[in-house]
Specification:
The structure is a single chain. The protein has 7 helices and no strands. The chain is an all-alpha fold. It is globular and about 55 Å long.
Length: 205
């Protein structure tokens, strides 16, 4: 393992630890305030951390790769993205007055992707495009949502700032895929800011 690979693995481990911490924070806040979207976001955090861990193990030298490791990795990523999108849907619903809220079942529509995924799972290009589209869509929805919340209450601006670093990570991943460590550094900053915001202000959203 060369120095660049070692740096990448170290950064990935830091991301895993922060994701686990954020997941635990969401569970505590979800239990305390009885907010379903916090649990969904917690599950997404845990699954993303597992996905990164699987990715680390797959790339370690001398490791015998399980023949279904790619399949498991992709399904974990998909379920994590689905939970993230459903959590955001519940967050949007929670932010509205009760009289204008859509039926809660609509927030779980992303789970239909689990039924559609087997149709494209053997097509690498379409599959990767779908993952990129889902993650980018989740970030865009989050930016729009937290922009509105920041307009209402300035305390949400730290979360909005964290999303800027997520966008930097996405853009870097598209334009400079060979510099993956920089994307992970951006994600670390984003997650750190995100955690500070939720830990400091105990957001109900």
């Amino acid at each position: 393992m060369n120095i660049n690979e070692l740096i990448l693995v170290s950064v990935q481990i830091v991301v895993i630890l922060i994701l686990l911490n954020i997941g635990l924070l969401f569970i505590k806040q979800g239990y305390r305030n009885r907010l379903l979207h916090k649990y969904m976001l917690a599950v997404a955090s845990f699954l993303f951390s597992i996905e990164i861990l699987v990715d680390i193990i797959r790339n370690l030298p001398g490791i015998v790769i399980w023949e279904y490791s790619d399949l498991a990795h992709d399904w974990i990523k998909l379920v994590a993205l689905v939970c993230l999108l459903s959590g955001l849907g519940l967050l949007i619903r929670q932010s509205k007055p009760k009289v204008t809220r859509a039926p809660v079942v609509l927030a779980f529509l992303p789970f239909l992707l689990l039924l559609a995924y087997p149709l494209v799972m053997d097509t690498f290009v379409i599959k990767q495009f779908m993952f990129s589209l889902l993650f980018t869509g989740a970030v865009i929805i989050s930016v729009l949502m937290y922009s509105i919340l920041t307009y209402r209450e300035r305390k949400y601006q730290i979360v909005l700032l964290s999303l800027v670093f997520f966008i930097i990570a996405i853009v870097n991943g598209y334009l400079f895929p060979s510099i993956l460590a920089f994307s992970y550094f951006s994600v670390i900053i984003a997650l750190f800011l995100y955690r500070i915001g939720y830990k400091k202000h105990e957001f109900n959203l």
